[in-house]
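Quick review question:
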């Protein structure tokens, strides 16, 4: 029988099958022997026995994250506020780069449009080719767009404390079936007391991840592959990078750099390029022998 791990606590994995049956499972010993971890979000094969079971196999993952430990995220909603706290383009750009690296679709959400027009912020990311939503948890603006993006798959929300994630989640999931009966008790709160990642089914034919630590999610600075592919994780650079004079151009001011020219001409957003430079400087000294084993 196949199912989805929706919660993992103390060596027990709670697997939901297609017919919405829930099984408390242990993993075969070979997973531990092969040092193969199981994550919330993994699609697995189980051998049921009553309401319990044993996990026999795990399907190939679309992606996985270490912090928080979750697999097969389809979409990440990156929530920013129009006012205090003001949007951090660097934080958003870190998230979009990580999404590109992990094959996750980023949805950039600017909340509190009722307090201040978020159009200038939206335009930065629309011009860079991202799905961007202006919304207000107070007026309900943009909620239908968010709900449309939630259809099917596994979604998660991230953003600075105070950006209004909990307000949005309360607006979108007023009847989400949680143990407390109150969305704000489990999702999007500023101070998270939960110590495990969990997926909750919702009425839009998908799951939303309750992921302690997502608010501080960032790219792993010990990941050499991330460093080596950094420029390709900015998809708005792609059309210009092909015309750089040197094939190994790092886009940091080299002579004949078409990306730098595109920034000067306003074809690439300046904030995006500044974020790239900041990330490049953070990663440039990472070498193979520095990587943690």
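Suggested answer, residue by residue:
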């Amino acid at each position: 029988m196949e199912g989805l791990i929706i919660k993992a606590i103390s060596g027990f994995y709670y697997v939901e099958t297609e017919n919405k049956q829930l099984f408390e499972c242990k993993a075969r010993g070979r997973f531990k022997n092969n040092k193969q971890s199981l994550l919330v979000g993994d699609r697995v094969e189980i051998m049921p026995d009553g309401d319990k079971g044993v996990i026999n196999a795990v399907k190939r993952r679309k992606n996985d994250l270490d912090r928080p430990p979750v697999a097969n995220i389809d979409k990440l909603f990156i929530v920013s506020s129009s006012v205090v706290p003001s949007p951090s383009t660097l934080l958003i750009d870190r998230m979009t780069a990580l999404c590109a690296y992990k094959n996750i679709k980023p949805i950039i959400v600017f909340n509190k449009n009722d307090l201040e027009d978020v159009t200038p912020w939206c335009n930065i990311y629309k011009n860079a080719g991202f799905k961007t939503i202006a919304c207000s948890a107070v007026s309900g603006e943009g909620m239908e767009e968010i709900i449309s993006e939630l259809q099917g798959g596994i979604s998660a929300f991230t953003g600075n404390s105070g950006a209004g994630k909990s307000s949005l989640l309360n607006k979108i999931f007023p009847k989400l079936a949680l143990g407390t009966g109150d969305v704000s008790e489990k999702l999007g709160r500023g101070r998270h007391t939960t110590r495990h990642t969990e997926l909750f089914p919702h009425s839009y034919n998908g799951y939303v991840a309750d992921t302690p630590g997502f608010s501080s999610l960032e790219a792993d600075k010990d990941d050499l592959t991330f460093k080596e592919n950094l420029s390709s994780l900015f998809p708005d650079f792609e059309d210009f990078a092909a015309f750089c004079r040197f094939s190994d151009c790092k886009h940091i001011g080299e002579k004949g750099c078409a990306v730098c020219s595109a920034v000067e001409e306003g074809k690439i957003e300046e904030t995006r390029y500044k974020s790239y430079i900041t990330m490049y400087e953070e990663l440039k000294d990472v070498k193979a022998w520095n990587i943690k084993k």
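Why it works: Residues 65-216 form a domain with the Rossmann fold fold (CATH 3.40.50.300). Confidence is low (pLDDT under 50) at residues 177-194.
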